[in-house]
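Case study 2.
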Amino acid sequence: MAARNRLLAARARSDTRAWQVKQRERTRHLIELGGLVAKAGLVELTHDDRAVILGLLIEAAAQLRGEDRAQYVTLWRRRGRRAFNEEI
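Prediction:
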């Protein structure tokens, strides 16, 4: 009985740890995305107005859904890479 309880407890710990790892990965991803918003200067430019920031992101998503998607992706990728390279 004790061995069975130890086995069940070990399984519960490993399940929790897998869930925690997944949650930490998601949290890290969201933090990194927030860092990109800050790096772009959107926080200062909008005076930390989250409705404006969300509106900007919604507008960008709408442009990506349009016919000029490839052009926007190329342009924004080029600008983003340039910004990353300037940091160094």
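Residues 2-39 form the longest helix (38 residues).
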